[in-house]
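Annotated sample (chain length 200).
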Amino acid sequence: MNDLTEFETYISKTGNRKALYRLVAKKYNIKRALYPGSHIDISPSLVIPDVTYIDNFKGAIRFFKKMSEIEDYVNKNKNYQEKCKIEFWGTDYNDELNLGKKDMIISQYAGFAGQATKRYLKKGGILLCNDSHGDATLAYLDGDFELVGVINQRNTLSTNQLNKYFVLKKDSQIDEEEVRSTMKGPKYKVQAANYIFKLK
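Output written by the structure step:
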């Protein structure tokens, strides 16, 4: 019996994002993903064959030392045919890393992860992010990215009427410097749980 109770406890507290990752992976045919600031959320590996995790948190470094147990767990619970490929870097995601180009970057509650790692995203690749720390706002303001979809709390993906997102209540301009300094996304008229951007 593999002891991954730490992961099970973690997703019971934070919520299991497997359905979110499966939705996006299926829609955009994701085979290789990068998850900067992942903590111990190995859910992407259950639906994506090749995932690289980056986190310098001591708890995450300790967790990923059990790589053979993690791989066993994933191979028993995954939703794809091939054997899983899991890589972990116990470092700051801002560091220069020797990583190949990925189909998707996952940014969840981990600062400006999408901005810091977009150099590892292939052209036409996907950034899946929320706006808890303003990462979605920075992607929206970034000319390299195009907003192509949003996902609501029930994990329903929409690609329509995207111009209603990132509109401030007072019809004022987004203050990028404030977002960067406070590491918080502004309150918009319409908010989504997650946003999908494509690298141009």
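Annotation: The chain has one domain: 5-199.
Annotation: The longest helix spans residues 67-77.
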